[in-house]
């Protein structure tokens, strides 16, 4: 098919290999989280976790313009970003199982999952906590002239934190190479954006920092890719920060203790009907990038990868109790 | 746990710690229109730990106010509301998030009366779910009672039983000054006898939960229960431990602790916060400069959280704070003068 | 003169008595601060202080729509607001001299000056610290149905604090009766708004909270009065918060330790030429409200009031050292 | 103050405490392009206390960055910068304003290495002008060293001399972990000998500033000077006081303090922070559980800030924290066993 103006951005811009890899990551996120949820239910994982099932397009398409030298900061709902930025599910599961083989050697768990070697500076247990950190990473890039760009993920709820305001203002005043990606899934825990946020679209707040702001359908892979690619290009050209708002939805509850009393089953179902993975699959098929059997193969491989990951994690090593104060400082002190 | 002496005329029921707190808040909302609750997801969600529960249904969303995720702003709004006539109870979803609001709590709420030379009052209660044991790792498991205990102008409480959870919250609400109440997350489901009706547990009074002759343990929050468990074991060995529930970090009840140490000559402080500069440091120092010093037969021991953030791995997490066997071992050593 | 559409708002709206009283307060602020500065130089006042000389129109015109039941929160540069809201200069000086007769019994000093009986909830040593407090006062008014409005004063520098963002958002979502008055004097200490703030006019940030925002000449008494009156009326009607930005200038340095290295003498002089008091005086004369001799009399009386205030303060009582822990709690505890 | 033993080959000059800090920062900026300074009005204004002074002229506004008035955001930017390769020195204009940034300092900077299992490093220095005595009242005079000392992952320093101000700052800068340096505002103008060139003062080592046999005073920051003044007076009465300059609150140098108390048998802790739960509590508790306990001839005394915010009135302000005569009186009492 000709890559004309009606062709979605992602199809026009990226080669087939990149697009197939993107689909693979979206499946990986989905199956990883299903696997994590299942392991949690079986009591293999403790604590809590925040699943991003339904938001996979946002994570993967946003990371598409990035190299391993580029950075991201992530959130409590960070598994998707982590996989989007290239992490291995085996080491992620190992982390969730509290094993030494985990990305954080079992010290961090779901809420602190990170893969610094791939530029993922980490999930964050503090809503909005990663926003200034992302700006700091962008400051390093500008100061040392590395050319790297940082993507800062955060939720609609986080946009009401003071950290959001302070960090976006600093990024704008200092013209730093950072892209703020707001994943607006309509709720911060149980509180809808209507009840918590005094603007309709969070992207409107970009004007308060004289930066471009755009709201896109966050379940439309190509729409996200286009908006974020443009913002990343702009950042790389030294023109400063942008804000991209991806409208999306989490199918699961906020965390493992959510009774979903603040939203209706109808609402949830309407969003499940807008599955970003299926939609991307269909788009790839429609534009001749990947046929059904090719997509099935990717799906199946992702499933296997997740199963292997769980097996790997189960076989991991438990930390030694005596090491409870290891890693507090660079060298252990008594 | 030994039941405190109780007036047989007062009706009690079995309630959980969370239910007792909810009951106190419900009574306060019903009695005084100036009382409002503020916090994240305390309405229809019922609170992250289901402490506010159904209160929004009973009192409506203006009295039980879901705030945006804005801890500094939210706490500051509560300060301004308290200063002008409301009596807010502000819930931090986790006490860790109070790190975002220290400015308003410490620079504003705690100091307003003083800075204004007594011309203002900030009757405000901050509720703070605290502590580890839930697998939520370093940013959701901290114990900051020592920080707030260091701040003149605040009162700081750590109830360990459902009865005290209700009684101290009502006392905090009646108090004309800001009060920080730490609620240990692992206690929310603990059941216990809770008196009916409106009653207050006095702020600044520790409780002797178990009498003993050989050794004093001062513990707070969940550590009270672990200390009592350790004491039962030690009793089998003939070691008779007195367990004091601190209850109030600011002010600290010097009298009760000094009296106990004068009797036993031995003291262990058990607390979940990080050991260094934690509340045990203050209790130890207070004894070491008091008249009880001359009665000490052994060094004062402290069992506190290890010098590390709370780790995610469950076994490491347990190892990061004192457990009953740790208390037992330390007490045995001290009683046998092996220290 | 006919009160037609060319007549400035203040002249149209307020009676002569009110306008004369406003001029008196502006002079009182000017002379109070000159007196405080002089006393500081003589070593009678210790610590530091932040003078608002040059900003008198903003303080007085903003407080004009308020009654004693309405509240204000103020800033480190708060003497003008305090006088605008009706405080006595004698008790203010007594506070600066550290006396028991001071508004804070000598415990607070310049940075905590307050007069709760008149609705002034206090200056604040923390930049932005008063903003959420103002919103809380407005919550009380709404919750108890008192009809009171709160004015929240803050500076251009404060608008980059997270507290600003969080508080304005809450005020807007809850539709509270509060007016945010930003006194934009071009600098937060040494840092110009261009170097610190990613929008040109701070009032533009109102859009991020879906509230009206307007920028006015803060040295034009009538312009300030009109904007704030409209915002106060709106708040009283239950229509929620507004943001008013008063463009003004402090003639003096930031505090007593400023060497003015970040601005030019020319700039300072150009603003001294725009003295808000002279301007208001001329306006009153032009519209026949007050002739020169009437204004002179007000000026002279204000001077005397300040002199008397200093004398009162000098004769005040020093606090007893043993009372150092008094006022920490409602009842003294040992 | 007794001059520390000095290598005669090392050149020194008289510098003020502020100049010594500026010299350290200038050397660091010149030596390592990764070093940047961040803070409010540290550029053309030279810093609220003129500590950065002319550095912006020498290194330009990209290396000496004026931040907006955004303590949380600014500190968080510094965390992110440190995490990715810069070595920021972040100045809070007053340590009181760190209340706005506790989240980033405590939840992020201090815990990042641990939460990430050693895979990350946050080499970051927070400079904090602290303490009272300037007439700036309750929100500009606080002493928070105990708070930060309670946080694993941080190191916390309180230099008391120009030499240490430089040497500890350079040590902090070389440290791979976040370090909080409290600079007492009243010390900025204090002059003293400062060695030339790049040198580091070891973190975690106290300094014996005056040797004595009768009694140990452990003091920090400006209290070191007040303790030395008191010691001189007491020497006239034949009371021989050992004065230890704590220098590091986290980690605390147990060895030096224990060795001193074993020798003297008497201990007073002197600090400016609020007495309850201040650093003296930790030092006292540390001794009371150490082998030095058996050598104690008297209770351990603490002199700290009163249980109140810092008042504005200058006489009240002085009365709010220990002064040399207070230290003298307490030491005399303790030495004469009147306690
Ligand atoms: C500072 C802070 N406040 C509150 C919380 C508790 N909390 C965790 S996630 C969450 C909701 C966040 O909403 P949003 O930013 O929209 O992200 P989402 O969960 O929808 O992905 C809340 C309130 C927290 N972790 N940190
Ligand atoms: C939280 C906080 N940060 C910094 C300061 C130090 N400080 C006091 S006033 C000021 C400038 C404030 O600027 P602006 O808000 O524009 O008010 P202005 O002084 O111009 O009236 C600064 C940085 C402070 N008091 N509080
Ligand atoms: Mg959300
Ligand atoms: Mg200004």
TrEMBL record, chains A, C:
Main enzyme class: oxidoreductase
Annotated Dehydrogenase E1 component domain residues: 24-316
GO molecular function, one term: pyruvate dehydrogenase (acetyl-transferring) activity
Catalytic activity: N(6)-[(R)-lipoyl]-L-lysyl-[protein] + pyruvate + H(+) = N(6)-[(R)-S(8)-acetyldihydrolipoyl]-L-lysyl-[protein] + CO2
Domain of life: Bacteria
Keywords, ordered alphabetically: Oxidoreductase, Pyruvate, Thiamine pyrophosphate
Keyword Oxidoreductase set for record: yes
Keyword Cell membrane applies: no
Cofactor(s) this protein cannot do without: thiamine diphosphate
Gene3D superfamilies reported for this sequence: 3.40.50.970
Parts forming coiled coils: none
EC number: 1.2.4.1
Known role: The pyruvate dehydrogenase complex catalyzes the overall conversion of pyruvate to acetyl-CoA and CO(2). It contains multiple copies of three enzymatic components: pyruvate dehydrogenase (E1), dihydrolipoamide acetyltransferase (E2) and lipoamide dehydrogenase (E3).
Protein's recorded name: Pyruvate dehydrogenase E1 component alpha subunit
UniProtKB/TrEMBL annotation, chains B, D:
SUPFAM superfamilies recorded: Thiamin diphosphate-binding fold (THDP-binding), TK C-terminal domain-like
CDD domains in alphabetical order: TPP_PYR_E1-PDHc-beta_like
Obligatory cofactor(s): thiamine diphosphate
InterPro entries per UniProt: THDP-binding (IPR029061), Transketo_C/PFOR_II (IPR009014), Transketolase-like_Pyr-bd (IPR005475), Transketolase_C (IPR033248)
Domain Transketolase-like pyrimidine-binding: 15-190
Cross-referenced NCBIfam families: PRK09212.1 (NF006667)
Protein name per its UniProtKB record: Pyruvate dehydrogenase E1 component beta subunit
Organism of origin: Limimaricola variabilis
Organism classification: Bacteria, Pseudomonadati, Pseudomonadota, Alphaproteobacteria, Rhodobacterales
């Amino acid at each position: 098919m000709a890559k004309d103006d009606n062709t979605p951005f992602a199809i026009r811009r990226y080669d087939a290999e990149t697009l197939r890899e993107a689909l693979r990551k979206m499946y990986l996120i989905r199956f990883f989280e299903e696997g994590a949820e299942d392991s949690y239910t079986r009591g293999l994982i403790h604590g809590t976790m925040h699943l991003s099932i339904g938001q996979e397009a946002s994570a993967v398409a946003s990371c598409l313009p990035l190299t391993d030298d580029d950075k991201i900061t992530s959130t409590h709902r960070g598994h998707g970003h982590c996989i989007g930025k290239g992490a291995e599910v085996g080491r992620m599961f190992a982390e969730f199982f509290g094993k030494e083989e985990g990305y954080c050697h079992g010290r961090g768990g779901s809420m602190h999952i990170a893969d610094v070697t791939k530029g993922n500076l980490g999930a964050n247990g503090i809503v909005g906590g990663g926003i200034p950190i992302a700006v700091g990473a962008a400051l390093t890039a500008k100061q040392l002239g590395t050319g790297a760009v940082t993507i800062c993920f955060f939720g609609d709820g986080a946009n009401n934190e003071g950290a959001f305001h302070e960090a976006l203002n600093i990024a704008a005043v200092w013209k730093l190479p950072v892209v703020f990606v707001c994943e607006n899934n309509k709720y911060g825990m149980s509180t809808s954006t209507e009840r918590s946020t005094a603007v309709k679209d969070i992207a409107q707040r970009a004007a308060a920092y004289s930066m471009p702001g755009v709201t896109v359908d966050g379940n439309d892979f190509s729409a996200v890719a286009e908006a974020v690619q443009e913002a990343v290009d702009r950042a790389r050209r030294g023109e400063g920060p942008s804000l991209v708002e991806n409208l999306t939805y989490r199918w699961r509850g906020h965390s493992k203790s959510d009774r979903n009393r603040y939203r209706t089953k109808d609402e949830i179902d309407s969003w499940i009907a807008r599955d970003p993975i299926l939609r991307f699959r269909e788009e790839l098929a429609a534009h001749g990038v990947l046929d059904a059997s090719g997509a099935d193969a990717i799906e199946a491989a992702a499933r296997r990868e997740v199963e292997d990951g769980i097996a790997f994690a189960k076989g991991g090593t438990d930390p030694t109790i005596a090491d409870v104060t290891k890693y507090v400082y660079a060298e252990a002190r008594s | 746990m030994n039941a405190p002496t109780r007036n047989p005329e007062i009706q009690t029921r079995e309630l959980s710690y969370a239910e007792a707190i909810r009951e106190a808040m419900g009574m306060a909302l019903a009695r005084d229109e100036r009382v409002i609750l503020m916090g994240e997801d305390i309405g229809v969600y019922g609170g992250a730990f289901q402490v506010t529960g159904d209160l929004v249904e009973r009192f409506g969303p203006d009295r039980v106010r879901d705030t945006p995720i804005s801890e500094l702003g939210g706490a500051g709004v509560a300060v301004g509301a308290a200063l002008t006539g409301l009596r807010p109870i502000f819930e931090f979803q986790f006490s860790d998030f109070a790190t975002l609001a220290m400015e308003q709590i410490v620079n504003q709420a705690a100091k307003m009366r003083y800075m204004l030379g007594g011309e203002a009052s900030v009757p405000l209660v901050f509720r703070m779910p605290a502590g580890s044991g839930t697998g939520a790792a370093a940013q959701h498991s901290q114990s900051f009672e020592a920080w707030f205990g260091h701040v003149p102008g605040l009162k700081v409480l750590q109830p360990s039983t459902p009865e005290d959870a209700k009684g101290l919250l009502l006392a905090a609400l009646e108090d004309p000054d800001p009060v920080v109440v730490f609620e240990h997350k692992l206690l929310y489901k603990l059941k216990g006898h809770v008196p009916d009706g409106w009653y207050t547990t006095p702020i600044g009074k520790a409780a002797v939960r178990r009498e003993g002759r050989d050794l004093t343990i001062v513990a707070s929050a969940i550590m009270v229960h672990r200390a009592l468990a350790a004491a039962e074991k030690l009793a089998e060995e003939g070691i008779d431990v007195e367990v004091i529930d601190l209850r109030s970090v600011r002010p600290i009840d010097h009298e009760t602790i000094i009296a106990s140490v004068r009797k036993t000559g031995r003291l262990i402080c058990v607390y979940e916060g990080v050991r260094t500069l934690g509340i045990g440091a203050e209790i130890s120092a207070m004894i070491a400069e008091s008249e009880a010093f001359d009665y000490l037969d052994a060094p004062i021991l402290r069992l506190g959280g290890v010098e590390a953030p709370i780790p995610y791995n469950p076994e490491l997490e347990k190892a990061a704070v004192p457990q009953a066997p740790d208390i037992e071992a330390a007490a045995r050593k001290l009683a046998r003068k092996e220290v």
